[in-house]
């Protein structure tokens, strides 16, 4: 995308994103640049580039337009400047500044091709011709020799700002400035004295207000601390009274439970004594039954009966019953 911004004394053009050739939706970026240059009318021109590359056709045309511009040209790079976008740096007489954080990439031309072997060979010849022309353009700025240029293109070489400076692709590396495509630095230089003088009264007022706020906050904090201490003491007193009451109630409940246990123990003793008496009476009755059985057995024996008969009391084994 190409954006132009004209002021009273200068023209700024920003190329952001892919360099586009003509398509069914929009004309080529070269068309937009031509219109911007015509509107600039020779005024100083600042070109900002942040682009991964794109159309070689459009890039070569745009570079030629910038080279033919009648006014002074400065070029600034921001972010990635790669592939065809690097050709726009090779404008004779232009100052090229790499803002901090710029990265560059050069490589051979690429294209899509289809057809038979003859057409594919022809496509390769076209690419060779494009690579020769690209190397010619790079030689405008880069003084490292044509062989090194072709080796860098064949290897698809990525360059830091310092490396691009050493090769001559840019003229200098600078931190971001207050204008242009990139933002101001995060840690700017100290303010000028005039600005500082204008801000000092405001800073003094702010500091005074902060001091008043701090003092008021400390007073409120002390008052709150005293209130909290009093509340904690009251809670502690109430808690002590509550604990004493609970202990007293527990002691009374324990005494009542002990009395109930003593009563139950006495009742159990009486019940056990009655039980023992009943057991003793039963044992005595059993002995009397045994004596009666013997008397009856002896009597039955005198009459020639079976002495093994059982007395009829409803609790003996079934057998011969003698009613007496």
3D structure, described in words:
The structure is a single chain. 53% of the residues lie in helices and 15% in strands. The protein has 324 residues and is α/β, with parallel strands linked by helices. The protein has a domain at 2-185: Alpha-Beta Complex (2-enoyl-CoA Hydratase, Chain A, domain 1). The termini are far apart.
The general outline is elongated
C-alpha termini separation: 136 Å
CATH H-tier superfamily of the domain at 2-185: 2-enoyl-CoA Hydratase, Chain A, domain 1
Could you state the order of secondary-structure elements as H and E?
EEHEHEEEHHEHEHEE
- Highest CATH level, the class of the domain at 2-185: Alpha Beta
**Strand pairing plus helix content: what structural class?**
alpha/beta
CATH topology of the domain at 2-185: 2-enoyl-CoA Hydratase, Chain A, domain 1
CATH architecture of the domain at 2-185: Alpha-Beta Complex
Mean pLDDT: 81
Using only CA atoms, what is the Rg? Answer: 57 Å
Percentage of residues assigned to helices: 40-55%
Number of helices: 6
- Stretches with pLDDT under 50, minimum 5 residues: 178-191, 310-324
Let me know the largest β-sheet: 8 strands, mixed
What's the count of strands? 10
Per DSSP, what share of the residues sits in E-state strands of 2 or more residues? 5-15%
Write the layout of secondary structure elements.
Blueprint: E1 2-6, E2 11-16, H1 29-40, E3 45-51, H2 56-67, E4 73-82, E5 95-99, E6 103-106, H3 117-138, H4 146-155, E7 157-160, H5 161-167, E8 172-174, H6 193-302, E9 310-311, E10 321-322
Parallel strand pairs: 2-3, 3-4, 4-5, 4-6, 5-8, 9-10
Antiparallel strand pairs: 1-2, 6-7
Helix pairs in contact: 1-2, 3-4
């Amino acid at each position: 995308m190409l954006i132009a911004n004209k002021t009273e004394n200068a023209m700024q053009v920003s190329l952001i994103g892919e360099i586009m050739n003509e398509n069914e939706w929009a004309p080529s970026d070269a068309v937009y640049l031509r219109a911007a240059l015509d509107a600039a009318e020779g005024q100083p021109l600042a070109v900002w580039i942040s682009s991964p590359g794109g159309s070689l056709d459009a890039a070569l045309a745009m570079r030629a337009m910038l080279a033919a511009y009648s006014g002074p040209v400065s070029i600034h790079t921001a972010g990635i400047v790669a592939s065809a976008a690097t050709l726009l740096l090779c404008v004779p007489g232009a100052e090229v500044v790499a803002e901090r954080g710029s990265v560059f990439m050069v490589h051979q031309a690429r294209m899509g091709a289809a057809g038979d072997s003859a057409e594919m060979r022809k496509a390769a010849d076209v690419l060779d011709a494009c690579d020769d022309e690209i190397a010619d353009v790079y030689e405008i700025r880069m003084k490292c020799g044509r062989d090194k240029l072709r080796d860098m293109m064949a290897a698809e070489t990525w360059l830091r700002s310092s490396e691009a400076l050493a090769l001559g692709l840019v003229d200098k590396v600078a931190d971001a400035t207050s204008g242009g495509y990139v933002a101001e630095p995060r840690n700017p230089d100290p303010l000028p004295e005039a600005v500082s003088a204008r801000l000092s009264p405001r800073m003094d007022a702010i500091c005074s207000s902060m001091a008043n706020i701090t003092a008021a906050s400390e007073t409120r904090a002390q008052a709150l601390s005293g209130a909290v201490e009093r509340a904690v003491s009251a809670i502690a007193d109430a808690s002590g009274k509550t604990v004493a009451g609970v202990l007293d109630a527990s002691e009374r409940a324990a005494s009542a439970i002990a009395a109930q246990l003593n009563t139950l123990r006495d009742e159990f003793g009486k019940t056990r004594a009655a039980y023992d008496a009943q057991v003793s009476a039963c044992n005595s009755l059993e002995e009397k039954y045994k004596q009666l059985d013997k008397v009856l057995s002896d009597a039955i024996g005198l009459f020639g009966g079976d002495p093994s008969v059982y007395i009829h009391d409803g609790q003996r084994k079934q057998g011969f019953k003698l009613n007496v």
